[in-house]
Amino acid sequence: MTTYSALHVLLCPDIIHRITSFQRGLFADMRTFRTLTVPAIPNVAEFAHLETHLQPWYASQPLDRLALVVATLPQMHDVVYAHALVSGRIHVLDGAPSVARHAPHLLSATQLWDMAAFGGHVASLQFLHKHIPKTMRPSAMMWASRQGHVDSVVFLDSIDAPASSAALDGAAATGQVEIVTFLAARGYPATSRAMDEAAKGGYLDVVQLLHTTRDAGCSKFAMDYAAGHGHLDVVRWLHAHRREGCTTYAMDAACANGHLEVVQFLDAHRPEGCTKEAMNWAAWNGHLNIVKFLHDHCREGCSVDALDWAARHGYLDVVAFLDCHRTEGGTAKAMANAARYGHLNVVKYLATNRQHEASFDRALDEARASGHDTIVAYLETYTRSI
């Protein structure tokens, strides 16, 4: 009986924890925390990484054990705080008062507010408002707005949180029409960046809202960005309702990204035109339909980069079109890079049709260095025959 009683006492969890606290090393449940650090917003992946480590621990351990975790691994104070604010687990801080009542070692009050706003949990913002009121900066409203957290934006507005044009600009950039509507109605400022970025993202409803509610307007970047990202509806609307216009970047970028309908619209309705880079970049990305359209409708032409870049990426159809229909030609880089990146069909075409530009020795060196034995064999055979 005495032996059983002694064993029962010694196996008491509280006594075991007290005894083992004098041992060196980490408790088994804390080993996974050794490498954890506080992520920087807006790194969602790193916060998700914290979740994979902390959620199972919370599910299996009492919250009052956090005090021991923080005492053993001091950096975990900041990690626990940041994770709780971003994930909305305020019960973690409420359940571990010894952790909550001490401010994090590395994170400033501004950073705590930013993390809470980024996470979008009103409970986190209320916790900070209770414990460290009036310590936020305009970045908190910006993060809440940009991330689309309507309730958080309304709460921050209700406590007169400071804000700058970054809030409305940020909401517009991510297409948060409800937040843009709220902020505009409340008189928050905006800059031309708001409409520019909304156009870039293809958020026509936001562009239209800003047009009717704000005086900041936009810049030429609005149509430039919209064209480059293929948002034809936004390009059409800006052309019809705004006077800023665009630059040659609009058509250049649309060509580079293969947006033929946008290119056709700009060519038909805008006077800005394009540069040689339009065909160059279309060739780089293998957009033969764009290359053909520019050849038929625009005078800017291209440079030797077009054929060189098409060869580099193995676009034989583009190489052949440029060879047959354009006069700019290419350079020795065309065959050299085709050989380097393993495009045997392009190497054969250039050897047959643009031999005068080719450097066979250079192409062989590139093929050998890259391990393209088939190209090496072809070039060795071909050079012996000429």
From TrEMBL:
Coiled coil: none annotated. Gene3D superfamilies: Ankyrin repeat-containing domain. InterPro entries: Ankyrin_rpt, Ankyrin_rpt-contain_sf, SecEffector_AnkRepeat. PANTHER family: ANKYRIN REPEAT-CONTAINING PROTEIN. This is Aste57867_8494 protein. It comes from Aphanomyces stellatus. The gene is Aste57867_8494.
